[in-house]
Amino acid sequence: MTASLKRFAATLWQADGRRFPAPLSLLLVGPLVIGLCVAFILPVGRLLAVSVWNPDFTLAEFVHITESPLYLRILGRTFLLGGVVTVLTLVLAYPVAFLMARLSGWRLAVATACVLVPLWTSVLVRSYAWIIILQRNGLLNSILTGLGLTDAPLPLLYNELSVTIAMTHVLLPYMILPIWAALRTIPRDLPLAAQSLGANAVRVFFLVVLPLSLPGVASGVLMVFILSLGFYVTPALVGGPETLMVATLIGQQTTELLNWPFAGALAALLLGITLLLVTVFNRFLGLDKKAAS
Q1: Tell me: the pLDDT tens digits for 235-246?
Q2: Average pLDDT of the chain?
Q3: CB 3.0–4.6 Å: which of 35, 97, 206, 228 could bond 180 by disulfide?
Q4: A single Pfam family, by name (predicted)?
Q5: Does 36 reside within a domain?
Q6: What is the extent of the structural domain holding 275?
Q7: Does position 149 have pLDDT exceeding 60, yes or no?
């Protein structure tokens, strides 16, 4: 019996140790595929089916979206805020990632902790923290009025500005980490070689460092943009009804109005546009090729 088990275990592993045989690969990936189907594919498929499941099997819910200026405005606001948040996170994250790539030892540990700690904090808690900071009698308005910079509290809450600030803060680590990972893989000899050939620091950055870090930039941009499109808690709390986004609208249709067909149509439209943008993004930036290289 023991010899049979040993022979069975020996057949599971390849001699080179670099890849698993097909039976073991299926065994390892099976629970993940089952969980993905149960927790994601089936619910999303059912929601999409509801959007067209009516007596006449028509696309009336999709037509209702395209004919309503309100829903088109909400869609436009969602993608506009997603683009703005993506650009802001990229501008703020790249210097932080560049600095982290040059650190080592305990300094790197402290910087990494500062980036990772917000990820361990609930989005709900961070959203309420921004409400405390940006509200009419909040911390920021108290500082501005106390210094005499403003005569009255500024309307910093329940608008697109507050949503942009809060979403940028929440999504910033998702941009820092991919860029940092890409910068760490750049050999230190390459910038030194460029400097030895007469390139100054600016030319070294734009001709050597930045091009080699583009896979991390592309991954961070794609991740942040997709996450921003599906944000629900932060826009609902910090933005209020004046900055309604698609995810909040879908939640409203399902939990308050119980209009599942319309919610399914909104989800299908958002998913389709997102997949189209990801395809175009991948087509022009070659994310797969850069990741493979």
Answers
A1: 888 887 778 888
A2: 81
A3: 97
A4: BPD_transp_1
A5: no
A6: 79-292
A7: yes
Terminal-to-terminal C-alpha distance of the chain: 46
Give the closest residue to 233 by CA, choosing from 136, 153, 121: 121
Question: Residue for token digits 């929601």?
Answer: 47
Total number of residues shown for the chain: 293
Task: Tell me how many degrees the CA angle 176-181-187 measures, rounded to the nearest 5.
Answer: 130
The number of angstroms, rounded, from the C-alpha of 178 to the middle of its chain's C-alpha atoms is: 11
Is residue 74 a part of any domain in this protein? no
Provide the number of structural domains found in the chain: 1
Residue 101 in tokens = 């790539």
**Dihedral sign of CA atoms 190, 192, 198, 201 in order:** positive
Supply the angle between the helices 123-134 and 139-146 in degrees, to the nearest 10: 20
Amino acid at 198: G
**Residue with token string 């982290």:** 100
What the block records as the tokens of 110 is 């402290």
CATH, residue 271 = 1.10.3720.10
Please count the helices (runs of H) and the strands (runs of E) in the chain: 17, 0
Global pTM?
Answer: 0.80
DSSP strands (E only) in the chain: none
Is residue 218 situated within a structural domain? Answer: yes
